[in-house]
Design a protein that fits this description.
The protein is mostly beta strands. The protein has four helices and 32 strands. The strands form eight sheets. Strands 1-29-28-27-26 form a five-stranded mixed beta sheet, with no helix packed on it. A hairpin with a 6-residue loop joins strand 14 and strand 15. The longest helix has 10 residues. The radius of gyration is 21 Å and the shape is globular. It holds the Pfam family WD40. Keywords: Repeat, Ubl conjugation pathway, WD repeat. This is WD repeat and SOCS box-containing protein 1-like. InterPro entries: SOCS_box (IPR001496), SOCS_box-like_dom_sf (IPR036036), WD40/YVTN_repeat-like_dom_sf (IPR015943), WD40_PAC1 (IPR020472), WD40_repeat_CS (IPR019775), WD40_repeat_dom_sf (IPR036322), WD40_rpt (IPR001680), WSB_SOCS-box_domain (IPR051983).
Length: about 425
C-alpha cells in the first residue's frame, strides 16, 4: 500500500501524473480591485468555428477575443487591424456576468432574422447571462448590443444554443426556471419549466438537438427527451449534493454531471442509467460529508471533441483531464488556484479555465491519437440511438461496445 500524501487521487500522487502545460495566462483588468466580490471569471466560451474566445473577467467586463486556430494563439488587443476582419472588443455589460454562449444560425424563409441591422445567418452572436436575470445578445464583429431578453427574476447561471443553426437558446436561472427562446422569431420566449425551490446552475442542448439536460440545487439532474418542456423530464438520481455542471458527448450518447459531492457521473442519455463515476476525493466520502462542505466541490466540466476526454475543475486546486473509459486516476492534471469554470475549444486543442480572481488560463495536454474503434463508435452513435443500435446485424460484443457498456464497472478491454 502506498503512503498516502494526497487524498485527491486514488492510485498516484499528482507528481506521478502527466501535467498539462499552461500555454497562455490572461490577467483580469480588475484583478487588483479593492472590491473582491464580483471579480470572478464565472464563464468562458469558444465559438463553434473557433474564431472567437469570450471571457467574463469580473466586474461587468466581457472580453471578446479573435482566435488564430492555425497558431493556437489569441489576437493581440493592441493590433488595430484585427485578425482577418475580426477585432478584439472589451465590453461593459452594465452588471456582473455569470454565463456566456455563442450562437450562429442559417436563414429561415419567412423568419425575421434582423435585429438592429444584423442578420443572424451572417454574423456570430454572443449571449451573456447577467446577475439581474437579463440576457444580452452582442454582435461579435461589431461588439454592439443587439437585443435584451427579459423574463428571468434572478441570476442567469447558464446559457446554451442548439448546434444545428436553428438559434434556439436555453437559459437556466437561480429563480428556479428554465426558459427556451427562439431567436429566429424575434427572440420569443416560447416555453418555461419551473421547479421551485430548486435553483438551476447548468443546462445543455445535446449536439443532435434531441435532448435538454439541466442541473441545480437539491441534487437535481433533469433530462428531457426532446428540445422542449412540453413533457415531464426524466429525473436522474445519483448525486447527494448540489449539481453544478453538465455536458454531453459530441455524439449525444452520454451525459456527464458534476456535483459538490466530489463526483462526476456519466449517464447513458437514451436509457437514463448510470455508467461510471469519477471521484475527486479518496476514500470516497460518506453521505453526510459528501452532502456538506468537503473542500472537493466539482464546479465545472467539459467534454472534448473526441468524446472520451473530459476536463473537470475541482476546489482541491487541480484541473483534471480524464479518459472516461480508463479506470482510476485522470490521465493528466494541472494545478490551478481557485479555478471555477472550464471549456474546451472546438478543436479540443486547448482548455480554457476561469479563476476566482478573474484570470483565465489556457491548458494543453500531450496529443493522443484516438483509436479506430472509438472513431467508428462516435460516427455510428451520432446517427443511431441506443435502441437502433440493438437492431444492428452485428455481434453482441460490438453492440455492447457501441452502447458504451465498456464504461460499466468491471468491464475492461
Amino acid at each position: 500500500m502506498r503512503y498516502l500524501k494526497s487524498n485527491s487521487f486514488e492510485f498516484y500522487e499528482p507528481d506521478q501524473i502527466e501535467h498539462a502545460d499552461v500555454v497562455e495566462h490572461l490577467i483580469s483588468v480588475t484583478r487588483d480591485s479593492t472590491t473582491k466580490a464580483g471579480g470572478e471569471a464565472w464563464s468562458c466560451a469558444w465559438s463553434s468555428d473557433n474564431s472567437y474566445f469570450a471571457w467574463s473577467s469580473g466586474h461587468r467586463n466581457l472580453h471578446l477575443i479573435p482566435w488564430d486556430s492555425n497558431r493556437r494563439k489569441r489576437h493581440n488587443p493592441t493590433d488595430n487591424e484585427g485578425l482577418n476582419g475580426r477585432k478584439y472588443h472589451l465590453i461593459d455589460c452594465g452588471e456582473n456576468i455569470w454565463s456566456l454562449a455563442f450562437g450562429s444560425g442559417f436563414s429561415h424563409k419567412g423568419a425575421n432574422t434582423n435585429y438592429r441591422h444584423c442578420r443572424f445567418d451572417q454574423n456570430l452572436i454572443l449571449a451573456t447571462g447577467l446577475a439581474s436575470g437579463r440576457i444580452k445578445l452582442w454582435n461579435c464583429h461589431t461588439g454592439l448590443l443587439m437585443i435584451e431578453l427579459l423574463d428571468h427574476r434572478d441570476t442567469v447561471r447558464c446559457l446554451d444554443f442548439t448546434k444545428d443553426g436553428s438559434l434556439q437558446l436555453v437559459s437556466a436561472s437561480r429563480d428556479g426556471s428554465l426558459k427556451l427562446w427562439d431567436l429566429h422569431n424575434e427572440g420569443n420566449m416560447y416555453s418555461t419549466f419551473k421547479q421551485q425551490p430548486t435553483m438551476f446552475y447548468g443546462c445543455r442542448f445535446s449536439p443532435n438537438a434531441r435532448f435538454i439536460a439541466a442541473v441545480g440545487s437539491s441534487k437535481t439532474v433533469y433530462l428531457w427527451s426532446s428540445i422542449s418542456f412540453n413533457s415531464l423530464p426524466h429525473r436522474l438520481d445519483g448525486h447527494c449534493n448540489e449539481v453544478a455542471s453538465c455536458d454531453f458527448t459530441p455524439d449525444s450518447a452520454l451525459l456527464a454531471t458534476a456535483s459538490y459531492d466530489t463526483k462526476i457521473i456519466i449517464w447513458d442519455t437514451y436509457r437514463q442509467i448510470k455508467l461510471r463515476t469519477l471521484g475527486h476525493l479518496f476514500p470516497s466520502p460518506s453521505l453526510i460529508f459528501a452532502g456538506g462542505a468537503n473542500n472537493h466541490y466539482v464546479r465545472s466540466i467539459s467534454f472534448g471533441q473526441d468524446g472520451l476526454t473530459l476536463a473537470s475543475v475541482c476546489d482541491d486546486g487541480f484541473v483534471r483531464f480524464w479518459n472516461i473509459v480508463t479506470p482510476g486516476d485522470p490521465v493528466a492534471v494541472a494545478p490551478v488556484y481557485e479555478a471555477i469554470s472550464c471549456q474546451f475549444s472546438s478543436t479540443q486543442s486547448v482548455l480554457s479555465v476561469g479563476c476566482r480572481n478573474g484570470d483565465v488560463k489556457f491548458l494543453k495536454t500531450s496529443n493522443s491519437v484516438p483509436s479506430l474503434l472509438n472513431l467508428c463508435r462516435k460516427t455510428v452513435r451520432r446517427v443511431l440511438s441506443t435502441g437502433q443500435v440493438d437492431a444492428l446485424p452485428v455481434p453482441k460484443m460490438l453492440i455492447s461496445y457501441l452502447q458504451y457498456e465498456d464504461l460499466l464497472p468491471g468491464v475492461w478491454k
